[in-house]
Amino acid sequence: MRVVVDLSRCEGYAQCAFLAPDAFRMHGEEALMYDPNPDDARRDQVLRAAAACPVQAILVDQLEGRDAPAEASPS
Amino acid sequence: MTSAENLQAFKREGRIVVVGASLAGLRAAEALRGAGFTGSLTMIGDEMGEPYDRPPLSKQVLTGWVPAENTKLPRRREIDAQWLLGVPASGLDLAGNHVRLADGREVPFDRVLISTGVRARPWFVESEAALDGVFVVRTREHAEALRRALAAGPSRVLVIGAGFTGSEIASVCREREIPVTVAELAPAPLVGALGAMIGDVAADMQRAHGVDLRCGVKVTRLEGDAQGRLRRAHFDDGSTIDTDVAVVALGGIRNTEWLQGSGLAAGVWGIACDTGCRALDLNGLITDDVFVAGDVARCPNPIYEYRLISLEHWANAVEQAEVAAHNMVSGQADRWPHLSIPLFWSIQFGVNIKSVGVPTFADEVVVTQGSVPDRRFVAAYGYRGRVTAAVSFNNAKWLDHYRQLIETAAPFPPPCPTPDQPADMKPVPVDFPGPTLLAQGATVVVTGHDPSERRVTAAHQHR
Questions:
Q1: How many CB atoms sit inside 10 A of residue B345's CB?
Q2: What stretches pass through the bilayer (chain B) (predicted)?
Q3: Which of A24, B23, B263, B320 qualifies as a cystine partner to A16, CB 3.0-4.6 A?
Q4: pTM of the entire structure?
Q5: Residue numbers of chain B with a pLDDT score lower than 70
């Protein structure tokens, strides 16, 4: 699954790192590092983390189950 | 046909081409579909593969946590586009309304969005740039190649340029316990973006983490061995260091060359547009059907005296893409201006550095909260007595407060909003090494006498 965090919005509340520690980690006191491609098995965890973010900075792919959209093949 | 009927017909069956298939291009495409555009949508990109996110490349990827391949951007919706990837655009014909591709194809459009971004500035000597061990970091392939080189355990890495990318790479090297030398022409790291005061903080931070930081020096030559591998770097003070990996982090070059001759106000400084992301032509006239978004756009900001400012910021790309997309499919009375205050972040040496506003648009700076030695503080920037920007080190929760000060032209220096007021709140000169905001110079000439004849033509700079 694909994830992106808008780090210009992130204020380091660390809720995501608490709820989905495999996908989100704090680096120092308030800097967030995240895995942009966490394992699909973590989907529920990651969705919970996204929902819990106080500034709603986490975007999860809305095209469920389509890891490689066919339209993106080169032509 | 009324203009409203025209607009509905365009939304139903018009042709939109997006040139530049990265963050801004993708978000614009999604916003176009979200706004009910059902016509044909073509995405042109010079790289192969789907749009991916760049910030993780200099952080998560180089630390070895995430493979470069795994940074594809999530999708907010289907965009049902035709993708023309792996071939750059080579020209824009505004009389015939088509984009020319480097392979000779022509792609017709009714409206076009230009989001071609920037590319890495390469090392200035081609033979030295080609040495095994010399890298830049802009694309996924670049990041993957550098990740492999760092994983091989180099004896020393040389980072050329201590802007944000260079400083982040130096930070990753120290995290991986790789000896690193940083060479910067300016008196301190980050000084071009954030001024001398923050530059001194950044320099202390690098040295405290064991970076061999050398400021005020220029790398003059990269020396390879008989096998074409990098071995040594020479500085203009006569010194040398032995190194097997050099990372050239000297900023970017805007991808505007393909627009030469198009009649747009495009050049090394970006493509000028209005706050609605509509491109200007060379005469400063607003075009009807050409829009610009992202790193390549140069947009006036009323907060900063309507100066045309181009920003290589992630949030700016997303916001401009959304404004441009909205305006592409909206009538005159419904258009949006792009008026958001710039936001930027960097993660280095375990510190979250963020800025709001335009720090280069300032004459003074003052620490308003926290403690510089603790590397937990906010500094506010002011220009002629009003707040124009703020930078936080591990204090991001406060930036929204400063954004509001900037938006309301609050007086500078602002009062400290929290109990962690520094003992000495005396503003100091901001001290940038050069007039960074105004340094681009004249690049057009005006010809003709009568109002109907007067036109501007481009005077292309020698580089």
A1: 23
A2: none
A3: A24
A4: 0.93
A5: 434-444, 451, 459-463
Contact B73 A34 (CB under 8 A): no
**Predicted local distance difference test score (pLDDT) of residue A63:** 82
Interface-testing mutation among B80, B83, B167, B398, with chain A (most A C-beta atoms within 10 A): B83
Rg (CA), chain B: 23
Report chain B residues whose CB lies below 8 A from the CB of A31. Answer: 347, 350-352, 394
Distance from the Cα of A52 to chain B's closest Cα (Å) equals: 17
Judge whether B119 and B252 are in contact, CB under 8 Å. Answer: yes
Residue A65 has pLDDT above 80, yes or no: no
- With an 8 Å Cβ cutoff, the interface of chain A facing chain B consists of 2-4, 6-12, 27-37, 59-63, 68-69, 71-75
ipTM for this prediction: 0.90
User: How far, in whole angstroms, is CA B221 from its chain's centroid?
Assistant: 27
- Please report where in the chains the tokens 């390549």 appear, as a residue: B296
**Which has the closest alpha carbon to B235: B248, B250, B225, B223?**
B223
CA distances from A59 to A34, B71, B72, B74, B290 (A): 12, 13, 12, 7, 29
How far is it, in rounded angstroms, from Cα B165 to Cα B161? 8
- Work out whether strand B444-447 and strand B455-458 pair parallel, antiparallel, or are unpaired: antiparallel
Rg (CA), chain A: 13
pLDDT of residue B322: 96
Tell me B132's DSSP state.
Answer: B
Contact state of A2 with B72 under an 8 Å Cβ cutoff: yes
